[in-house]
Amino acid sequence: MKKYLFLPVFLFALVANAQIDSTLLKRVPVDTSYTRAMNMDAVYNRPFLQIGNLPASIGGYVEADYQYMGQDGITEGHSFRIPRFTLFVASSIHRKIKFLSEIELEEGGKQISIEFAALDLTFHPLLNLRGGVVMNPIGAFNQNHDGPKWEFVDRPIAMTEMLPATWSNVGFGLYGKYYSKAWAFGYEAYLTNGFDNSIISNNQNKTFLPAAKENALRFEESSNGQPLFTGKIAVRNNKVGEIGLSYMGGIYNRFEEDGLVLDAKRRLDVLAVDFNTTISATKTYLVGEWAWVLVDVPETYSQQYGERQKGGFVDIVQPILRGKLAGFDKAVFSLACRLEYVDWNVGSFEETGGNISDDLWAVVPAISFRPVSQTVIRLNYRYMQQQDILGNPPAKIGGVQFGLSSYF
For this UniProt entry, which residues form the secretion signal (predicted)? Predict the structure, then answer.
């Protein structure tokens, strides 16, 4: 991935050059269709900066945080990190042809990945073609994951440690939207490269979908020649909110090679439901997601490899103060709380009938301050309990997290 290292240098050089004359810099206006934006619009519903007459606009966001965490009374002390630094590059080739890329540098540049790099062609509001590296629309967080949009330092555990957050693949698909007064309907359907055997053959020693993200070759070829299908439908009402139902499934294992059958075809299926709403009377914002995972695990594997998984989260965000705060005209001070749960192995032991645990729950109260809508300062206290597969007394994990995140 070293060949992508020139991109941050190139983009910052452009910005530095543009600073010679501030008139060269201008904010790209948000598309008016985003006044009723849905989760599927998240990829374009971001701030961008136009540099002079260049045919492309750029943007991005950065996150930095501090944490002091302990487990069962033992702590590793104070820790600082930059979990991610993300760059966007977009271009309108034609009023009906758009390109956008999202490149993420994680852990201070230790890992560089292309999360999105797709060309969109619009034929009709209900019929649009997208091709390239696309973000599989399973749930809502996978698409709408930008750090500045959330009041919490960590991403939801179920969406990162059960589902592979920011999961993207090379492929093609169709999407569209339809509006009728206060209602909006949207759909997406893609065929892409898929998962591989690493979801059951990994260093986690359990069924673990995020392990497939380590395979960079998925951007070059399919692991087994079988496409992964991802589809989503969503409905939004301006007064009620949005609800989405999504599905992702396909063959994950390499079942044959050079015509020689190696194994039966084994499926992976994921179903997710997501919602978000704002209670108008109190301005309370609610957002959540729940997912179920089904994996056809070979009988030769032990029961620690789960065939069923489930998990999700709910965020409650309550603005307390709005208006002029600390010299900012439209600042917002909020209280928030996240409730989350994940079970990596739903079922019972065949020998005893006892429950297979391997689960985790967490409560994360938070305080956030937004001096402007695109920047958030957040203070969290994370408390969670995690059980092993045998259901032994859970490990108790807790600590303070402080961080900031901002678009630029």
Answer: 1-18
